[in-house]
Amino acid sequence: MHIKTWLFIFAFAAMLIPLGAEAKPAPRPASRPASRPASRPAARGGSAPANNNNAAYSAYLTRLRGKLLNNWNVPNGRNKVILSTVVNADGTVGDIALSSNPKSADGEIAGSEAFAKSQPLEAVPGGGQVKLILTFESTADPHGDSSSNVYTQIVPVPVVKAAPAAADGAVPAAAPTTP
After folding, report:
1. Are 121 and 64 in contact (CB under 8 A)?
2. Which residue has the higher pLDDT, 132 or 160?
3. Distance, CA of 130 to CA of 60 (rounded, Å)
4. Who contacts 84 (Cβ-Cβ below 8 Å, separation ≥6)?
5. What is the distance between the alpha carbons of residues 137 and 101, in angstroms, rounded to a whole number?
6. Cross-strand bridge partners of residue 7
7. What is the pLDDT of residues 37-79, one digit of tens each?
8. Phi and psi dihedrals of 59, rounded to 5?
9. Which residue among 81, 104, 121, 179 is least packed, with the fewest CB closer than 10 Å?
10. DSSP 8-state symbol, 153
11. Which residues contact 94 (CB under 8 A, 6 or more apart)?
C-alpha cells in the first residue's frame, strides 16, 4: 500500500508537468551602442577634471576613525556628540566646536578626550585646509549592553583669493550714477 501511495503522487505530478515542453530562454533586451551618442558633445579644453581626493580622504578618515575608536571611553546613556574643527594642511587643529543632542556633558567630555588623545593628526591629503566633522553616537547602560560608532566627514575649505590691488595704490573710484 505504501508503494501505491507513492505511485499515485508520481502520476499526479507527471500530469502537472507538460511532457515535451522545452524551456525557452528569456528574450534579450536590445543592446546599446558602445560608442557615445552623437548628441553628447565631447568635453572641450585640455584641462582634466578637478581631483577631489575622494580615495585619499577616505583612507585618511578610516585611519582617524580607528584612532578615535581606540581612544574613546563610551559614557553611559544615549549620546550623540558632534565635534567640528578646521584641520590645516600639516594636521594642526583650529578651534573645536562641540554640541550634543540630548545635551550630555559626559558625552561631550568623552568625545573631546578621544579627539585630544588621537592627536597629532596626519597631514591632510593634497594639502589645504579641511573642515572635519566627527559624530560620536553611543548607547550604553550599566549592565553592559552597549553600541557605539564614530561617523567621520571631511569638507575641503575653499581657498579665498584676494582681490587685486590697484597698481598705484589708489582706491578705485565709484562709478558715476545718473539721476
Report:
1. yes
2. 132
3. 12
4. 96, 97, 131, 132, 133, 134
5. 10
6. none
7. 433 333 333 222 334 568 999 999 999 999 999 999 999 899 9
8. -65, -40
9. 179
10. E
11. 85, 86, 87, 88
DSSP string over 33-72: PSSPPTTSPPP-SSPPPPP--HHHHHHHHHHHHHHHHHH-
Pairing between strand 130-140 and 77-87?
antiparallel
Whether residue 120 has a cis bond before it, omega within 30° of 0 = yes
pLDDT, greater one: 171 or 151: 151
Amino acid type, 120: P
Residue 146 in grid coordinates: 552597549
Which triple of cell numbers denotes residue 19?
A: 511532457
Give yes or no for residue 128 having a pLDDT over 50.
yes
